[in-house]
Write a structure and sequence with these properties.
- The protein is an alpha+beta fold and 423 residues long.
- The protein has 2 domains: 183 residues, no CATH class; 214 residues, no CATH class.
- It contains 8 helices and 19 strands.
- A hairpin with a 2-residue loop joins strand 5 and strand 6.
- Helix 4 packs antiparallel against helix 5.
- 28% of the residues are buried.
Length: 423
């Protein structure tokens, strides 16, 4: 959960001192560990921990220093685990490269950042009180934002945005209750049924969903394209102006990129949450998500890879949100290879004599039937796990369509009869 901090002059000065020393501790320790790794391929995590803990515990407090060291330790342990998983071929599909932990530095200067243990801060009305900061003392600061979750309070991070000139605090919770659209509910929920569904990730249709009872859902992805085309053109125009004066970047162009990312994430969050709610009320217990085969391709290979797949929407973020929101509703997520799923006929299960035709349609020339190409992909992703019978939904009959500004009513799931032979 993220809230904005509104410090006065005294609180702002103390926050800057705290975060500056915290980033310095991270960078110095990380430099020592990276040097060990690149020289010997081994890192003495215990020795470096003791060395820097003694150096900084009086400046920012023993607890704060400990939390920063622990977080860096976790980053290195995750790095070594990812290296092992990469060798064994167990990396998630959205992780393409494994790098050692980096520095708290951006744009040639140290970032203002720190980590707090759960007992170092408490919420008192409109204020947050931070203590255990060594020579800095305590900090009392106002905050702005809505706390929409409840549960056991966890570790928190404070970060300063140089471009927006704002302080942000990120608080972690072991969530017990959550408020969504004004209603509170305990999480995780229990699935309402035992159904399964396949999800195909696309461009014009961001998500194509096919449930084993024959119902289907299409989530419009064109607004996401429109957002990206708008910002790409606007940034390109302003970048050419900067280039004429010999500049490569500016605060304004960085703010443009941030607005672009925020709008992309906002749309993805809306699409994912509405889709998972629809699946939950449809009685789905497990979903199979296809891994786009071109998502890991290097820029320049393939006509649509670089922009339409990598830049139009954040593939890794979409997959993470699908998994996170599904966990709230007690739905299990499994990633599967989607190879040939868009080319396989749902009737004959063959690739020959079938192909995509105009406007996202898939045709079986043997049976002379036209299907929705994205729903065919979702159907075949689900069919990899179990045998299912095609329904009229594959031809667009009774398909629910999710568009911006429209909230789905679970009762409006379409009029598709389950497991009917295809039209």
């Amino acid at each position: 959960m993220c809230i904005e901090l509104l410090p006065d002059e005294v609180a702002d000065e103390r926050l800057r001192t705290l975060c500056n020393l915290s980033s310095k501790l991270w960078n110095e320790m990380n430099y020592a560990r990276r040097r060990q790794f690149f020289e010997t391929k081994r890192v003495d995590l215990k020795q470096t921990y003791k060395e820097f803990y003694e150096r900084y515990k009086k400046l920012i407090g023993s607890v704060t220093a400990q939390q920063i060291l622990i977080k860096n330790y976790e980053a290195w342990k995750a790095f070594f685990s990812s290296l092992k998983a990469k060798k064994e071929g167990r990396l998630p599909p959205y992780i393409k490269k494994v790098n050692p932990p980096g520095y708290r530095k951006k744009g040639g200067r140290r970032t203002l950042w720190t980590v707090l243990r759960n007992d170092q801060y408490r919420i008192e009305g409109e204020y947050i009180v931070i203590k255990g900061l060594g020579a800095i003392g305590s900090i009392r600061v106002r905050y702005s934002g809505r706390i929409h979750i409840s549960g056991k309070q966890g570790r928190a991070e404070i970060h300063y945005d140089y471009d927006e000139k704002k302080w942000y605090m990120y608080i972690s919770y072991e969530v017990e209750k959550k408020i969504v659209r004004g209603s509170s509910f305990r999480i995780p929920l229990k699935p309402l049924g035992n159904k399964e569904a396949g999800i195909d990730i696309g461009i014009n249709n961001l998500l194509a969903v096919y449930v084993d009872d024959g119902s289907a859902l299409l989530v419009n992805g064109r607004p996401l394209k429109a957002i990206s085309f708008y910002w790409r053109e606007k940034i390109s125009e302003y970048q050419s102006t900067l280039n004429r004066y010999g500049f490569k970047t500016s605060k304004r162009i960085r703010r443009m990129y941030k607005k672009w990312r925020r709008q992309i994430k906002s749309y993805i969050n809306w699409a994912v949450r509405n889709t998972i709610e629809w699946l939950y009320h449809s009685g789905v217990k497990k979903i199979y998500v296809g891994h786009p085969k071109y998502a890991s391709q290097e820029p320049g290979k393939g006509s649509k890879v670089n922009f339409e797949i990598v830049h139009v929407w954040s593939y890794g973020y979409l997959l993470r949100r699908l998994k996170e929101v599904a966990e709230e509703y007690g739905i299990e997520v499994e990633h599967v290879d989607e190879k040939d799923t868009s080319r396989t006929c749902p009737i004959c299960r063959a690739i020959e004599n079938h192909k995509r035709i105009s406007r996202g349609l898939f045709k079986c020339y043997k049976h002379n039937i036209v299907f929705n190409a994205d729903l065919v992909g979702a159907f075949n992703i689900l069919a990899k796990s179990r045998a299912i019978t095609p329904s009229p939904a594959l031809c667009g009959v009774g398909v629910t369509r999710l568009r911006p500004g429209v909230r789905l009513n679970p009762a409006e799931a379409g009029d598709v009869a389950p497991n009917l032979p295809t039209l």
